Amino acid sequence: MSLREITFLVIEDHPFQRDMLRQLLVGMGAQTVHTAGDGRQALRLLRDPAVTADIVICDVAMPEMDGIELLADLRAVRDGVALVFMSAFESNLHAAVEIARAGGFQLLGALVKPVSTRNIAEVVAAYLARPR
């Protein structure tokens, strides 16, 4: 499996940051990158059987439904998806990571914004190296 075969869902409330991350992933070779502005929009996408998502990259702090609130419904909608949290604040990341780990989610990493090509490459490497 390669980056081209991995499908992504980027959940970010800030349109500029959401588009920059989508462009970064496409620039690295990703073929399918879905985007959502918050957790509610992401859940609507994930309920659609035609939408695939191997890796969900999610901002922790968002209006409407944040990344931590998303966890409550994520497993019921799309069990087994790999998760990456991102935030501009490390303290937000620590809390999100602890909650995800306690909930048994497949957590690939926690990224401090701004996200870089190197960060994404590490996440993809962790996804490819995970036991199947």
Would you write up a description of this structure?
The protein has 132 residues and is α/β, with parallel strands linked by helices. It has a single domain, classed as 3-Layer(aba) Sandwich (Rossmann fold). The protein is built from five helices and five strands. The chain has helices spanning 15-28, 39-47, 67-77, 90-102, 117-129; strands at 7-11, 32-36, 55-59, 82-87, 106-112. A five-stranded parallel sheet has the order 2-1-3-4-5, with helices on both faces. The chain is globular. The chain starts with 6 loop residues before the first strand and ends with a helix.
State the gist of this model.
The chain is of the alpha/beta class and 132 residues long. 45% of the residues lie in helices and 21% in strands. β4 (82-87), α4 and β5 form a beta-alpha-beta unit.
What are the defining features of this structure?
alpha/beta; globular; 132 residues; 5 strands; Rossmann fold; five-stranded parallel sheet; 5 helices; single chain
User: Which architecture name does CATH use?
Assistant: 3-Layer(aba) Sandwich
Mean pLDDT: 93
> How would you characterize the largest beta sheet?
5 strands, parallel
Q: Number of DSSP strands?
A: 5
Structural class: alpha/beta
Summarize the topology:
Elements: E1 7-11, H1 15-28, E2 32-36, H2 39-47, E3 55-59, H3 67-77, E4 82-87, H4 90-102, E5 106-112, H5 117-129
Parallel strand pairs: 1-2, 1-3, 3-4, 4-5
Helix pairs in contact: 2-3
